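Open question from group meeting: does this chain pack into something compact, or does most of it stay loose? Before anyone orders reagents, we agreed to write out a predicted structure and look at it together. Recording both the input and the output here so the notebook holds the full record.
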Amino acid sequence: MYNFTSLPPLSLYIHVPWCVRKCPYCDFNSHKSPDHIPENDYIDALIHDLEQEVPHVWGRTVNSIFIGGGTPSLFSAEAYDRLFSSIRALLPLSPHAEITLEANPGTFEQGRFADYLSLGINRLSIGIQSFNDQSLEALGRIHDKNQAIKAVETAHKVGFENFNLDLMFGLPHQTARTAQYDIDTAIALEPTHISYYQLTIEPNTLFYQQPPTLPDDDPIIDWQIDSQERLANAGYQQYEVSAYAKDNKQCQHNLNYWQFGDYLGIGAGAHGKITDAAQQSITRRSKQKQPQAFMESAGQASVILTDETISTKDIGFEFMLNALRLTDGFPTPLFYQHAGVPISHIDQALEQAQQQGLLERDIHFIRPTEKGQRYLNNLIELFLP
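Structure tokens returned:
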């Protein structure tokens, strides 16, 4: 049985489902945009969706907002202005809230960066993926190297003081030289945060059906180690499996996920997780995935695709699946605060992990060892019920 004496921090996730073109590696809920995106109708639906969610979090302050996709930068600043007006009317928003919008480097979007900043969007996450035109073409990206660099320069120019670059490695046509060029170029552009992760082939993607030729594993590992050293030397601290940040520029929204905080999810295919102290429960909820189905059902019970309560039997795995991604681990008291059960609930798994050299702990902190970070899946599996 849960025993929540306080509630975790709360975030808001907003999903925009359309892209100019679906990338062959992407397994997110994204759809090729129609000739005319129903921007106003979708904003209306998001507002109705939020109105339906708000009673679950009455009085709770939102500490971060993340607008993901899809390609959220396809929407105008005017659309987000209307959405934010409703958000502020419905929810207390922290004056220091981190508000992130995902953007792609298509040149037609860059003129919007200044407008986004003026609305209170204070962080961008720019989907670069590579600075090599051959790799970008193989990945199905609509931008080239020059457009990618221009997008970052524009972010600096209009005044964004905090932004992330998404960068992948292990790409088609990638070599040691081009992998090094990608990371060096990203560092030279001086983002405050870099998400650096290996291309993986996911089910339900074109790459899964038609696998590309990828580099062998051994050189990929070498490139990753070399890039991590370059990032560290440039002042980027790795704080999560694939996240590197300058001082105090960790992504607060993602940290809330990894520390098992709460989040509302609105939009087509959006997921949420909410703790209810009165009911002593944790619930995960997702929304209709197809944009049209979402817009037609927003604000109604039928918009909810899944609605599941997390049992105390599963809570240890659910918590550790997130928290062990953090390289520094988590404060030991956080488990009770956010999972609602004492740390003794997972004592047996913790002892096994320690015995295998995958984890270290004391009364203050629990963290994966270097070996645990390397064999993270093995470590997390120990907490399966």
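Observations to bring back to the group:
The CA atoms of residues 1 and 67 lie 34 Å apart.
The domain at 10-255 is CATH 3.20.20.70 (TIM Barrel).
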